[in-house]
Amino acid sequence: MTVTDLSHVRRPVAEARGLPNAHYTDPALYAEERAALLLRQWAGLAVAADVPERGDAVPVDFLGMPLLLLRDRAGAVRVFMNTCRHRGMILVSEPRRIEGAIRCPYHSWCYATDGRLVSTPHVGGPGRNTHDAIRREELGLIEVPSAVRFGVVWINVSGDAPPFEAAMGDLLARWAEFDRDWVHGGADSRWDLTVAANWKLAVENYCESYHLPWVHPGLNSYSRLEDHYNIAVPGRFSGQGTRVYRQLRDEDGAVFPDFEGISAAWDTAAEYIAVYPNVLLGVHRDHAFAILLIPQGPERTLERVHLFYPTTGTDAGLRARNAEQWRTVFAEDIFVVEGMQRGRHAAGFDGGRFSPEMDAPTHCFHDWAAAGLETWRAMARAAE
Amino acid sequence: MAGDGPRGGMSGLDAALLAAHAAGDRAGLVRLYERAAEGAGDVDAACFFLTHAYVHALEAGDPRARHLHRRLKAQGREA
After folding, report:
1. Using N-to-C axis directions, what is the helix angle for B26-38 and B43-60, rounded to 10°?
2. CA separation (Å) from A205 to A128, A337, A355, B31, B68?
3. Alpha carbon of residue A111 to chain centroid
4. What gap in Å lies between CA A216 and CA A219, rounded to an integer?
């Protein structure tokens, strides 16, 4: 097992160096981070809009695990291991509507949409559907703790993170005015990007504004560097805010409706926060977005982009323009994260330095990652 | 359903079941398996077919699942 020295990462920002190269390239460290940083936190899996109707079920691969995202009969979004408790068969292979029960295609054990095992045909012999050894109440689908907030379905695979409300308390307080049902913009408001980069580089690039004038000159024409401020809450999240958000308008001057009850403080403000480990959120008075970073390996990441609005029935033309605007911005970042990935193969690169003024949010993320890894390693040592 | 079941050569019911399976016609499967149970020679065979009718009804959210469950439970074959 590769064990890296993380002590320099946890130094104050002016003295710190970033995570060592191996954290971006080494499969063993990728596996360690998967366990220490991605499965033990509240990670973003999908959006609730992926399962809009009761009974909707979508199989999702998350870090090599087969999960089943579904909306149960009562309307609640749930996440289960997509695996039959009998012989481990995959239950649902394609997105579909569950009309009644989830029937395993192998021996037809059936589960209710709330995960209960409801039928075990022939388990006691032909035509005998019970057996004392097979206690249905103990053999429901394995449920993954989940929460829906900001349009996102968050999961804690290990099951040992603090409750969602506690873990996200700082963010929920900061963004209380945005803590409501976000309406997904629909098919024209979602797209995927696949980048040849470690997932952490997408976080690092997202949470700082230092690069904006160089990488996003279009944004900088109205949102200048000096209009931005840093956000860094150690151990939780980091990002940036702007004081000069300008609403998108069509030819007639029409804009999207505001989130209900939003205060004047948000008239020209917007914030962009990376919620550790893998959710990038952006909020504005009239729309929001979420980017879910789904790691595909040490050097490959799927980015799922979703735009949300305060209400249903927003104007399709304006939505398309907004999507196009964000498509351009997010595409401009690809060469950076992929370039940093290639750069991480340089022998002797020591993790890099941080501008104490401009890179505090990035260092905040590195510090969180290093702390999580140190905790994980201490637990592993204690278990030996 | 001696002479009229899966082991007794291709009957009209067999053919209909195969067609329903091929078409993914779950409502048809419920009806046909229940009919197979009616023609079964003994309780075990009947419960075998009722089980299939019940499972397909469960999967489809078909209200017939309720009475199929009752019939199986009455025979001590379902919980």
Report:
1. 160
2. 59, 7, 14, 59, 59
3. 28
4. 5
Nearest-Cα residue of chain B relative to residue A121: B51
The residue among A129, A131, A138 with the most chain B CBs within 10 A of its CB, best to mutate, is A129
Predicted ipTM? 0.89
Which element (helix H / strand E) includes A271?
Answer: strand A270-275
Using a CB-CB distance cutoff of 8 angstroms, which residues of chain B are in contact with residue A99?
59-61
Peptide bond between residue A277 and the one before it cis (omega within 30 degrees of 0): yes
Q: Which residues contact A251 (CB under 8 A, 6 or more apart)?
A: none
pLDDT score at B1:
41
When the pLDDT of each residue in chain B is averaged and rounded to a whole number, the result is: 90
- Given a contact cutoff of 8 angstroms between Cβ atoms, the answer to whether A299 and A23 are in contact is no
Amino acid at A378: A
Rounded to a whole number of angstroms, the distance from the CA of B8 to the nearest CA of chain A is 18
Entry pTM: 0.94
Residue A291's nearest CA partner among A180, A214, A173, A202 is A202
CA-based max dimension of chain A: 75
**CB neighbours of A140 closer than 8 A, spacing ≥ 6?**
A85, A111, A115, A116, A117
A51-75 pLDDT, tens digit per residue, is: 999 999 999 999 999 999 999 999 9
Tell me which amino acid residue A63 is.
L
In this prediction, residue A211 carries a pLDDT of 86
Any alpha helices (H) in chain A, and if so which ranges? Answer: 22-25, 27-33, 164-167, 169-174, 199-206, 212-215, 217-220, 316-332, 334-343, 360-383
Torsion of the alpha carbons at A270, A272, A273 and A274, rounded to the nearest 10: 170
Considering only the beta carbons, identify the residue of A100, A121, A136 that sits closest to B62.
Answer: A100
Under a CB-based contact definition with an 8 Å cutoff, are residues A66 and A83 in contact? yes
- Taking contacts as CB-CB distances below 8 angstroms, the residues of chain B near A132 are none
Interface of A with B in 71-100 (CB under 8 A): 99-100
Q: Which positions in chain A touch B43 (Cβ < 8 Å)? A: 127
Which residues of B fall within a CB distance of 8 Å from A101?
58-59, 61
| Unique residue bearing structure tokens 């959710």 | A279
Nearest chain A residue to B56 by CA: give it. A103
Q: Hey, are the CB atoms on B58 and A118 less than 8 Å from each other?
A: yes
Dist. CA A308–CA A284, nearest whole Å: 10
Q: pLDDT at position A1, please?
A: 63
Interchain proximity B58–A130, CB inside 8 Å: no
- Smallest CA–CA distance, residue A121 to chain B, in Å, is 6
Residue A93 pLDDT exceeds 90? yes
